[in-house]
Amino acid sequence: MKIRVLGAAAGGGFPQWNCNCRNCRAVREGHAAYQRRTQSSIAVSAEGARWTLVNASPDILQQFQAFAGTWPTGGLRGCGIESVVLVDAQIDHTTGLYMLREKGSPWPIWCTDPVYEDLTRGNPILHLLEHYCGVDRRPLPAGGEPFHPEGSESLDWQALPLLSAAPPYSPHRGNPVPGDNVGLTIRDPATRRRVFYAPGLAEVDDAVFSAMRAADCVMVDGTFWTDDEMISLGLSTKRARDIGHLAQSGPGGMIEQLARLPRHIRRVLIHINNTNPILDEGSTERAILTAAGIEVAYDGMEIDL
Ligand code: MLT
Ligand code: MN
Ligand code: ZN
């Protein structure tokens, strides 16, 4: 199984267009310790030729240009990506669908019922696409039943409902329902290797921990270093947890959660917010991660399992 990180940043990307925080300023100025990152998306393939897209970010055109696996081959039109799986209905995970409208046939789009509801009501993007390529909506089972999205049918995909948050525009924003956000376990039956992917994760409950422990590689929420990161910078009044993200540092934080996993499991943080000090490769925070055996995803990262 192959996983390609198309975008490793959280919503807004890195740098974020209107942000003048220390990180965004440094990366704009070309400081060597910082790398640009586009918004949250990965692609998954069994053999490296046909791919399934997980999340469609606003930066999707740039991401496809940077990844030859998506380029058309053979006919006059085409794409290496054969279907789209959505882990939630957030803007940073869905806006790229607009850019995929030129497809000559409906896009298979796998999403849970609550996500489908958000994407046909609060943000009716799936209805709009009916006027272009069309959508072949595939219900993503949130109860753990395996599913097999186009492009990677030989892999067994399973969704796990997560405690995170529906988008601000969603009627479920204040009262989450199961399926607003899911984590994905993707298993290759040929090698028995599996990855657990959850870019938005507010809490590592028993079910999440079991899914993480059963994986060979976890790619999990790396949004914020501290729970009050946006508050202390004066950028927001909300804590990380309030918007569906478990911070890395502090008691019960992601570093502690990952430390509970068996040593052989590869640990990767993904969906990194531009304010997060770990984006400075020379920071003490980044050194803490490295010492704990935790990697920070970057655009173009490839994981072979
Ligand atoms: C999130 O992950 O919390 C959201 O994607 C934030 C956003 O809408 O940019
Ligand atoms: Mn996000
Ligand atoms: Zn910033």
In words, what does this structure look like?
The chain is an alpha/beta fold and 305 residues long. 17% of the residues lie in helices and 21% in strands. The chain has helices at 22-28, 60-65, 91-94, 113-118, 125-128, 206-213, 229-232, 254-259, 284-291, and strands at 2-7, 41-45, 51-54, 81-85, 107-111, 135-139, 156-161, 182-188, 193-198, 217-221, 266-270, 294-296, 302-304. A seven-stranded mixed β-sheet has the order 6-5-4-3-2-1-13. Strands 7-8-9-10-11-12 form a six-stranded mixed β-sheet. The model has no long low-confidence stretch (mean pLDDT 97). The structure holds D-malate (MLT), manganese (II) ion and zinc ion. Zinc ion (ZN) is lined by residues 16, 19, 21, 23-24, 274-275. Residues 16, 19, 21, 23-24, 274-275 line the site of zinc ion (ZN).
Number of DSSP helices? 9
Categorize the overall geometry. Answer: globular
Percent of residues in beta strands? 15-25%
Q: How confident overall, as mean pLDDT?
A: 97
Secondary-structure-derived class? alpha/beta
Low-confidence stretches: none
Percentage of residues assigned to helices:
10-25%
The run of helices and strands is EHEEHEHEHHEEEEHEHHEHEE
